[in-house]
Amino acid sequence: MRSVVTARLPDGGLLEAPGTALDAVLRHVDRHGAVHLVTLWRDDPHPDHRAAAHAALRAGVTLGVPVHETLLWTPHWTPPEEVTDDVTRLLAAARTPS
Questions:
Q1: Distance (Å, whole) CA 51 – CA 67
Q2: 55-59 contacts: CB < 8 A, separation 24 or more?
Q3: What is the pLDDT of residues 33-80, one digit of tens each?
Q4: Residue among 27, 41, 35, 26 at smallest CA distance from 3
Q5: Is residue 12 a contact partner of residue 49, using CB atoms and an 8 Å limit?
Q6: pTM summary value
Q7: What does the alpha-carbon distance between residue 39 and residue 49 come to, in Å, rounded to a whole number?
Q8: CA 46, CA 74: separation in Å to the nearest integer?
Q9: Is residue 40 helix, strand or coil?
Q10: End-to-end CA gap in the chain
Q11: Using an 8 Å Cβ cutoff, are 66 and 36 in contact?
């Protein structure tokens, strides 16, 4: 990872203004020449995290840049029955000693 960039968007309410986050991601990808994007999981329990993830996913499609999702709060805050099967498998694999 060459750099980490924050958009300095206001806390709360990003779901109500999805273009704001998308514009920020597109601007930073263009400015920094990102070849990969890393974001939180699209179904993270925090609404701003979800909005940021969806913005990154849309930017990745728009620009042809691969997007990698990571889990932050999901393992801690999301009831197991609400976690999708693909994430459940990912969590199980991460907990299995190699």
A1: 14
A2: 55/14, 55/18, 55/21, 55/22, 55/24, 55/25, 56/25, 58/22, 58/25, 59/22, 59/25, 59/26, 59/29
A3: 889 999 988 888 888 888 999 999 999 999 999 999 888 777 777 777
A4: 35
A5: no
A6: 0.74
A7: 8
A8: 9
A9: strand
A10: 25
A11: yes
